[in-house]
Write a structure and sequence with these properties.
Layout (H helix, E strand, L loop, with lengths): L4 H7 L16 E8 L6 H7 L7 E7 L10 E7 L6 H15 L4 E5 L4 H5 L2 E3 L2 H5 L12 E2 L6 H14 L3 E6 L1 H16 L5 E6 L17 H22 L3 E6 L6 H10 L3 E2 L2 H6 L4 H17 L5 E6 L2 H4 L1 H13 L4 H6 L4 H11 L2 H9 L2 H9 L14 H18 L9 E6 L1 H4 L5 H19 L5 E6 L9 E6 L4 E6 L2 E6 L9 H15 L15 H4 L4 H7 L1
Parallel strand pairs: 3-4, 3-6, 3-7, 7-8, 8-13, 9-11, 9-12, 10-11
Antiparallel strand pairs: 1-2, 2-14, 4-5, 13-14, 15-16
Helix pairs in contact: 3-20, 8-9, 9-21, 11-18, 13-16
The structure holds 1,6-di-O-phosphono-beta-D-fructofuranose (FBP).
The site of 1,6-di-O-phosphono-beta-D-fructofuranose has 13 residues, from loops.
Length: about 550
């Protein structure tokens, strides 16, 4: 393998564990906490998880290890989108397993949850693991989005587990994957398989968190990567003084990534989906909001700026969701063929006009031509519009351009408007993990094994007090059912982990609100620069602004 100098240097990095896990495996004992309840729908969740519901939270502390000695054969999977630090979760898990007993085994199931079904695995050894320490990506075993949720799948997993003598399975994933981990844990317990299931909180989206889980891993590195790029663009904008940059940042639904990047870079505009939904803002109102900043800056001679657009924004715009729902109905079943058979866009446009309600068509007709067409081109396997493929950065810049034309015509706007568009998503998901993510992930993995060793199942590996130095981090576990509630999914009520959206009364959003009017009009950019891996702690061990504000 050709190694870059940074990769070689990162191999030598020793991730920091929480103080309580630093004295060696023989000196880690359990401190029992309080019994737990689910965040809502307690009776229903309890009934669905009779074997794993209501267990105690636990923390680890320094003391004699009282866990029972037995050979451990652990299987691990990476699930869903890549997030920096995933490799270190596996490395931490491996190191704890081998430090406990070198005859213990760690199997990596390949390509995500489907690896467990297909029994596609490798057995890790030192040489293999060492090649992935402190590196980004999920290529150590690959990832995938297959959902482990049916009884039939669980039966196959049980067979695979039996074949290998698995004592535990670790699922590294987001809210859906950890929901599935909880259901699998319950199944394994109900069927006396002896297989424990432990989850680890992953996702760059930052939406798997709550009062216990302070951050999902990968959010730190991904947002720092995007913020570096946004800062570079701000500096370019401030140098050339001729473009407005519309930058879409990943985050399938919640706007945590956009908010963090705005706090890091003090961009002129940042839309927050959750606020748009709460204020029931229309597309036109959002475009006016951005156009106000462009106008004020333009009239001050500053014909440039930066606007951050969260990937999930359009689903938060009530009128847009209504339009999407009607389009899905309009083309349901055989009607897609009828629509596709129409000879040209004009006849398709007429078909759409006739088929949509007046309210929905009023929204449709203000969309730029390319978005209108996009809505009818890209469909998912169920025939639904794929909202995530909509180029919302271009949508909003086009709507803003229309607003500015009107304002120019009525004389209120005197500037010039030229836009550039960017989408930052995949660029950040496999970056070398920041020191924070390298340490956090290694700790999550190490800690996951301590939960296994002490016999827990249906728990999420939990490392908290993250805004403090790693020495003061607190390691432990939390029953996954604590985060669950019932939600409607595909026409059925299902137990799921509640997704954490941006809280409009939370400190990060409030801080943003206190400053955004000034940032919109003034050039108050901050340039975070590249993630630093070596150097003074105040530069290398920075947490996110979100975490600092939430815990500050
Ligand atoms: P996870 O929730 O699985 O961590 O994935 C998050 C994410 O990166 C989103 O930000 C993005 O919308 C999506 O994955 C993209 O998915 P894909 O990799 O399948 O294109």
């Amino acid at each position: 393998m050709n190694l870059s100098p940074l990769q070689k240097a990162r191999y030598a990095y020793k991730p920091k564990l929480p103080g309580m896990l630093r004295n060696g495996i023989s000196e880690i004992c359990v401190k029992d906490g309080a019994a737990t309840e689910s965040v809502a729908d307690q009776d229903k969740i309890k009934a669905l998880f009779p074997n794993t519901y209501g267990k105690n939270e636990i923390t680890f502390e320094k003391g004699t290890n009282t866990s029972a000695a037995k050979k451990q054969v652990v299987g691990v999977i990476l699930s869903g989108g890549q997030a920096p630090g995933g490799h270190n979760v596996v490395c931490g898990l491996y190191d704890a397993i081998k430090a406990t007993d070198k005859n213990n085994v760690l199997l990596g199931f390949k390509g995500g949850p489907s690896g467990l079904i297909d029994d596609d695995f490798i057995e890790f050894d030192d040489e293999y693991i060492d090649a992935f320490r402190n590196t980004g990506g999920f290529d150590i075993i690959g990832s995938g989005r297959t959902k482990l949720e049916t009884e039939e799948q669980f039966k196959i997993v049980t067979e695979v587990a039996k074949k290998h003598g698995l004592t535990a399975i670790v699922i590294i994933g987001g809210d859906d994957s950890n929901t599935n981990a909880a259901v699998l844990a319950e199944y394994m317990a109900a069927n006396n398989t002896g297989v424990q299931v432990i989850g680890c909180p992953k996702t760059i989206d930052g939406d798997l968190k709550n009062e216990d889980i302070e951050a999902s891993f990968g959010f730190d590195t991904a947002t720092k990567t995007y913020s570096e790029l946004i800062g570079n663009i701000e500096r370019d904008a401030n140098s050339a003084k001729k473009y407005w940059h519309f930058i879409k940042v990943m985050g399938r639904s919640a706007s945590h990534v956009a908010l963090e990047c705005a706090l890091e870079t003090q961009a002129n505009i940042c839309l927050i989906g959750e606020e748009v939904a709460a204020k029931k803002m229309s597309l036109s109102a959002i475009a006016d909001y951005i156009a106000d900043a462009v106008e004020k800056r333009g009239n001050n001679g500053e014909n440039f700026g930066v606007a951050i657009i969260p990937e999930g924004i359009v689903e938060f715009v009530p009128e847009f969701s209504m339009l999407i729902a009607e389009i899905n109905e309009l083309l349901a079943g055989k009607k897609t063929e009828e629509f596709n058979a129409l000879p040209d866009w004009d006849s398709k446009y007429e078909y759409i006009k006739k088929g949509l309600s007046k309210e929905a068509f009023d929204v449709f007709k203000i969309l730029p031509d390319f978005v209108q067409k996009q809505l009818f081109l890209e469909r998912d396997p169920h025939g639904n519009v794929q909202v995530s493929l909509i180029e919302s950065e271009k949508l909003f810049s086009a709507l803003v351009a229309d607003k500015l034309k009107e304002r120019k015509a009525n004389g209120s706007y005197k500037g010039k408007f030229a836009a550039q568009h960017h989408f930052f998503g995949y660029e950040g998901r496999c970056a070398f993990p920041s020191n924070f993510d390298a340490d956090y992930c290694y700790s999550l993995g190490y800690n996951a094994f301590m939960l296994i060793q002490y016999g827990y199942t249906g728990y999420l590996s939990k490392v908290s007090n993250l805004s403090k130095p790693a020495e003061e981090w607190v390691a432990g576990g939390m029953p996954i059912t604590k985060m669950m509630n019932m939600e409607r999914r595909n026409g059925e009520d299902k137990p799921v982990i509640r997704k954490a959206l941006v809280e409009l009364d939370g400190k990060p959003f409030k801080y943003f609100c206190e400053h955004r009017d000034e940032w919109a009009v003034k050039t108050a950019f901050t340039y975070p620069g590249a993630i630093q891996y070596f150097g003074p702690s105040e530069v290398c061990d920075l947490t996110t602004r979100t975490l600092a504000l939430e815990k500050g």
